[in-house]
Amino acid sequence: MSRWKQIWRAFWEGPDYLEMPRMRRKLGRYRSLTITLSAWLSAWALRAMSPVSLIVLPVAVLTSLYALIAVDSPIRLLLLVFLALLLVELGGGFWFRPRIAMIRRAPERVRAGSVFSVVFEWRNRRKRAAFDLFADPFRYSSRLVLQRQARLGELPGGGVASVESSWLARRRGVVRLYRPMVESRFPLGLLKWSCRGDGKADRLVVYPAYTALRFFDLPLGALCQNTGASSCSRVGESPELLGSRDYREGDDVRHIDWPGSARRGELVVKEFEEERLKRVALLVDTFAPLSSSQHRKGAESPELEAALSLAAAITEYLVRGEAIVDIFAAGAQVHRIRTGRNTACFEAVLDILAEVEPEPAPSLGNLEPEVFAEMARIGGAVILLLGDDAERRALVRRVAVSGVSVRVILLGRAAPDVPADWRVIAPEAVRSGRILSL
Q1: Residue 146: C-alpha distances to residues 138, 171, 290, 320 (Å)
Q2: Which is deepest, 19, 158, 312, 390, by most CB within 10 Å?
Q3: Per-residue pLDDT tens for 141-173?
Q4: Which residues are within 8 A (CB) of 198 and not within 5 positions of it... i.e. 6 or more apart?
Q5: What is the DSSP code string of 327-351?
Q6: pTM for the whole structure
């Protein structure tokens, strides 16, 4: 990519330390030129001017205009005071402007509703001291709430320091942390002088909060498959030794029992029992329409958040047990992942669940036939629904007709004629951690 294209692309993406408003259309995503220019001007103003200067500057402008009209007015003395303060701020701020080498250590993923820390390691690259320092002065995202700002009163020339900020992960989602920044408001707090670290922005995953299940009853049709373990990581798995037998051509030489072969005078091999794991399909409904005002305010769907929390709890329970989970998050785009029996696989599931967005239109009827064919091969499925309507019931019937044993869990209110084998759970019960077994 040419330098000009990189600059043009960076312009449309907007300042990385300012959340940009987004407009959507059917064929992609775009932003308004006016909004983008306004965002850049706002970002530059916020980076260079403190809240105090944003109040003082209009007063200074009005005073200057009045002084030009009323030449003999004593208010001209106030204008001189403003100019003197500005000169002191510019001279002192430029002389002591920060030049800091910085490293930011933030967690890769955190739980929604939890408080986490971000640690900054600073090294002053100048011989002069730096004063009144703030780390990452702009908020990362509306999904996070600042609890304690990382700041330092003085950093001597060539000195090093470690500071820490505290954040509350308010909402689930994926947050892009802008490149680390240090700003100083020394000496008078009117202007801000800042510098930025090298490297790329960090990525923080806020996964759904969930309560671990004590028991989960698998669908009766969940099939045992001895090929499941071979397609996943085998960390922590050890086949059981059954005994020994005579060596046959084609046997793995790594399984030769050398002490036993020496005793018998002929080659013998160890025989193992391959571990058999159950496979379960977990289908998550994501149809949760929100109004435009709710979308702008960052509102959440209680049913969707409860379904994702329950999906995380079910996956965590099955990963600890004797099952492999195939997860399908059904929306305009079907997210699919197969878990193994290790922490890395479960973390990948949490990453997927963190990225799921509510679908504004029904999409369960548009699932590809390959999804149902894969469920038929698995044999057992758990379906998490966000409502009870004709399309959702048709989906359950279609899965059942394909020979799959189905467990349906409905989050929210149910119709009076809800099927007797459906489990209805209130979203508040999931959020409060009262669901411990299913």
Answers
A1: 10, 13, 27, 35
A2: 312
A3: 889 999 999 999 999 999 999 999 999 999 999
A4: 179
A5: EEEESSS-EEEE--SSHHHHHHHHH
A6: 0.76
